[in-house]
Amino acid sequence: MIQALIIAFVSCFGLIKEFKVAVALLSGGMAVFLANCFFVYKAFSKSGAQANKQVVGAFYLGETIKIFLAVGLISVAFWQLPGFEIFALAGYVVALLSQWLAPIIIKTH
User: Fold this and answer.
1) Which one of 16, 31, 74, 81 counts the least CB within 10 Å of its CB?
2) What does the alpha-carbon distance between residue 30 and residue 36 come to, in Å, rounded to a whole number?
3) pLDDT-based confidence at 44, cuts 50/70/90?
4) pLDDT tens per residue across span 1-13
5) Residue 66 burial (CB < 10 Å; 0-12/13-18/19+)?
6) What's the confidence (pLDDT) of residue 1?
7) CA separation (Å) from 65 to 15, 69, 78?
8) 15 pLDDT above the threshold of 80
9) Helix-, strand-, coil-residue percentages of the chain, each rounded to 5
10) Cα 83 from Cα 18, distance rounded (Å)
11) By CB neighbour count within 10 A (0-12 exposed, 13-18 middle, 19+ buried), where does 85 fall?
């Protein structure tokens, strides 16, 4: 949820320059966000101590598909937004950084 808010916030800054910049930033960020949503759905589809091999298998399958999905979506963004690839890549990097820095952004103690 925080990741989606950060992506939207950064995309709003793109509107200062040009609408297509905002679209490119949003496209790059959504490539990460949608891939993460798929991973969460797939990885947590199995649960329970009795299904530990299924849980591990779902986790690995979800992570593998997540990587291919992210690469595919960012490739589509590059293809559909010629001349704005750097902004799509910037949105992608911001989304990844928000994911990696989430423990620092949200302090629970």
Assistant:
1) 16
2) 9
3) confident
4) 788 999 999 999 9
5) buried
6) 76
7) 32, 6, 20
8) yes
9) 85, 0, 15
10) 13
11) middle
In terms of Cβ atoms closer than 10 Å to its own Cβ (0-12, 13-18, 19+), residue 104 is exposed
- Pick from 75, 83, 76, 106: nearest CA to 1: 106
The predicted structure's pLDDT at residue 102: 81
What predicted TM-score, i.e. pTM, was given to this entire model? Answer: 0.85
Query: Following DSSP, what letter does each residue of 66-109 receive, concatenated?
Result: HHHHHHHHHHHHHHHSTT-HHHHHHHHHHHHHHHHTHHHHS---
CB atoms within 10 A of CB 7: 24
Residue among 20, 16, 17, 24 nearest 93 (CA): 24
Place of tokens 């820095």: 101
Q: Give the chain's length.
A: 109
